[in-house]
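__Protein archive entry__

___
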Amino acid sequence: MTRFTTTTALALTAAALTTGALSLSRSDASVSSGDASISVTSTPVVTYATETIDGLDVFYREAGPQDAPVVLLLHGFPTSSHMFRDMIPQLATEFRVIAPDYPGYGHSSMPDRADFEYTFANYADLIEELTQRLGLDTYSLYLMDYGAPVGFRLFEKAPEKVDAFLIQNGNAYVEGLETFWDPIKDYWKTGADAEREVLRPFLTIETTEWQYTHGTRNPNTISPDTWTMDQWFLDRPGNQEIPLDLFYDSRTNVDRYPAWQALFREHQVPTLITWGKNDYIFPEAGAHPYTRDLKDVETHILDTGHFALEEDGELIGTLITDFLRRKVLDAE
């Protein structure tokens, strides 16, 4: 049987529809046109939904078998679950994959700051409630940027629920909080408007594009749709105060590092680290201290930047699938 890529099959499908010669099965697994038989590679369907929690709509993407082990993908700044758009179908052939948006990001609610305190602790509470609503008894955590302090707070609440850590440029150690963090640390010290305003240039389209392209091997392969869409959300009236609030609240993450490290030593969660070594925000120095406290760690340092999925997503997805087969599927 001749095999084609999905793109080729779709083109042939369109041509057959034009001539009226196509018979398409309900499963979309194969098509016939005259005497020719064409196999179409099946791709898991991604669904999009919201769950109302404490009056807030929490948006999430989901794919994969309902009875499979769960992978919970927690996004970074300034993006949303959109950063996982390609990884979700890759993982969903074997896992139930769920990727939520935090309030103020992506398609989740953006409540007024007078009505909702934008903190990593509150994000963790909402995601915990979402996991309970969706019946997630255990899960592996993908932790990137913002996702690390959100996910490690979930781990702190219920360590027994975490099957594995999948860490990508997300810190739990002071190593790696380098030059980029200096003005943020100044804001931590005072909480004053003057130090807050110094951080506002971090929210411009130029900086958002830089986050995606800095440190990549070939910036021309990074889709401008990424930073353009993120910036659209950032430029909504009032939205830019949210990341400034979270920059200040990130001091509480550093305060929690010793507690998280103690839990690492106690529970020894299998850990896969994939780290873009050219990330200026979370440089490679933040990747290596995990081995001080976790014994079952596999580390892959990649020649890319902050949003490593944009350049090495297929590789990272393959590494995750292999790791979870050995550490989660084989352990069941």
Q: What stands out?
A: The chain has a mean pLDDT of 90.
